[in-house]
Amino acid sequence: MGRVMELINVAPNREAIDALEIGPTDVVLEMGFGPGCAIGSLAEMAPRGTIFGVDPSEEMMASAARRNGRAIAEGRVRLMKGRVDDLPLSPGSIDKILAVNVAYFFDDDAGELGAARHLLKPGGKMAIYVTDKSSMSRWKFASPATHRLFGRDELAALIRGAEFRDDEVSIREVDVAPGVKGLVATATKRSY
């Protein structure tokens, strides 16, 4: 499954990472890192920063650890098993947050995004990628029983549920494969 995730997430990862504008010293958190491909890209883009990753799967932990062994040994990457709302990270300690193809599984109350927002520094940015429901509703594996489906309005509502204001959020459509439309939302935590 990790190999399949690796292939289908290439374009979504690229689109969401580009939206974050990673700097060389950024502290970044990836929610649901899967096989660890984006973790590796983030570590390359922030060579003097720190990359944290959280994922609930033991198999994905093992795969991502193998893929990013050197950066882990150097202390630049730290992988944790669990959920973002259980992380031992300080509030306001993260510059950027990446969440690709994980919002389908978030709680209805957006608790995961609220916890992630709490970790962001003022001025910090989160990028969330979902495949648009117009594409995803055609896939047999993505039923409402297993996946929460998102269009632009549903994604905006999810992010507002995490206490981001409308002026902190932008959503754009992206084509990630022939006939597959995605949405990349960026949410910037303002310091009001």
Report on the architecture of this protein.
The chain has one domain: Rossmann fold (3-Layer(aba) Sandwich), CATH 3.40.50. It has 8 helices and 7 strands. Strand 1, helix 3 and strand 2 form a beta-alpha-beta unit.
Topology:
Layout: H1 2-8, H2 10-20, E1 27-31, H3 37-45, E2 50-55, H4 58-67, H5 69-73, E3 77-81, E4 94-100, H6 111-119, E5 120-131, H7 133-136, H8 152-161, E6 169-177, E7 180-188
* Structural class computed from helices and strand pairing: alpha/beta
Tell me the Rg in angstroms.
Answer: 15 Å
Helix tally equals 8
Low-pLDDT runs of 5+ residues are: none
CATH topology: Rossmann fold
Which descriptors would you attach to this protein?
192 residues; alpha/beta; Rossmann fold; 7-stranded mixed beta sheet; 8 helices; 34% helix
Brief account:
The protein is an alpha/beta fold.
